[in-house]
Specification:
By secondary structure, the protein is an alpha+beta fold. The protein has four helices and five strands; from the N terminus they run αββββααβα. It has a single domain, classed as Nonspecific Lipid-transfer Protein, Chain A. A hairpin with a 2-residue loop joins strand 2 and strand 3.
Length: 136
């Protein structure tokens, strides 16, 4: 499986494709997500900010680049701080490490979460591991 640069064009294309597949398979899903990566490499974003958001409803995906506030959950993270998360395969064994890393990033102001992750269907979390497998 080819690895792609985190939050780069190929990564964005992959997450959009995976979200579209999940939306089509789960017609009852209704939610919105936004992710913002600050201090990103300038070859990916001249101003250092990469943002994407999506909305899923009725089996359809609306995926756009850019920041959105009218979503159920929004994460704003420092690119370098979030990179280890993006590469981490989540399992019951790695969950504690993930939680510790999360708490540290939140405490240092490198990660900010707005909204309620409980509004997302549990099956959406499989997307994380699918993306971790291809993230450089």
């Amino acid at each position: 499986m080819e690895k792609v640069e985190f939050a780069g064009p190929q990564w964005m294309s992959a997450i959009e494709s995976k979200l579209r597949r999940m939306a089509e398979a789960n017609r009852d899903w209704r939610f919105g997500i936004c992710e913002v990566f600050t201090d990103s490499p300038t070859h990916l974003a001249a101003d250092g900010v990469i943002a994407w958001h999506c909305r899923i409803a009725d089996g359809k995906l609306e995926f756009r680049m850019g920041e959105a506030d009218d979503v159920d959950i929004k994460n704003v993270a420092d690119y370098q701080a979030i990179l280890p998360f993006a590469r981490m395969h989540l399992t019951p064994e790695t969950r504690a490490d993930y939680e510790k890393m999360s708490a540290k990033a939140l405490a240092e102001g490198k990660l900010k979460r707005v909204g309620d992750a409980a509004k997302l269907p549990p099956a959406i979390h499989a997307l994380h591991n699918e993306m971790a497998e291809i993230t450089l």
